[in-house]
Known about the structure:
single chain, alpha/beta, Rossmann fold, globular
Amino acid sequence: MKLDKYTVTSGEKFKLKEHDPGDTGDYRSKAEAVRAMADNIERMKVLQDKLYAQNEYALLIIIQAMDAAGKDGLIEHVMSGVNPQGCQVVSFKQPTSEDLDHDYLWRIAKNLPERGRIGIFNRSHYEDVLVVRVHNLIEGSQMPDRLLDPSIWKQRFRQIRNFETYLFENGIIPIKLFLNVSKEEQRQRFLARIEDPAKNWKFSAGDVAERGHWNDYMDAFEDAIQHTATKEAPWHVIPADKKWYARLLASEIIVDTLENLHLEYPRLNEAELASLEECRTMLLNEKS
């Protein structure tokens, strides 16, 4: 699969309206995509094992989207084949009082994955240039008033770029996924949550209120992608109206990233191999 059309490494010319939320690439059926994703899951299982064994790199998957875009389902399906011991999921919700007593990257940094592990952020530091910006929550922050001027968003974009470059240069590889769902598809998914008693718990009246800020959110997402897409930490704009295609595309991106790390199982030196052979001999000669 060609991933270039979904990958943004330099955001200067990025326009969100040029990306169709209903795109399904060369795939015309869910069944075809599910088969392809099953292959990716098997490949990912082997690659994760090598990542864990090599213990040099870490993978950080950052997922941002509007409500009902399919973040939880994507995590559940795409990561279904990985070893839970080598994977961690962190959901970033409204900051706690402790979070607010620190800089906005503090809670992010303390939840970064260890080497050898895959970390998944369900929302992330980007909330501080999205929901905080759309609702002007920065005014209620505990930052000094002299720092709260219109340039703060460009400052944060610069800080985020520098932070993600720092991660990359320390072997923590960012994969940033924006699930691009249409407003109409979101409406249909909200209605489905209301009409299905088993999904009522997923719906909040606040979700509908947030739809009133749709255009503001789209502008904020576009601005964030324009200013934080880099070669080291590109954005992947994933069409999300068809969940099966979004999941396939995400699995393809993750596998492609892992394969480009050229992961290998650790190789033992001569002394270690000799010790291994000695242990083998002892076990074979052991009396029952």
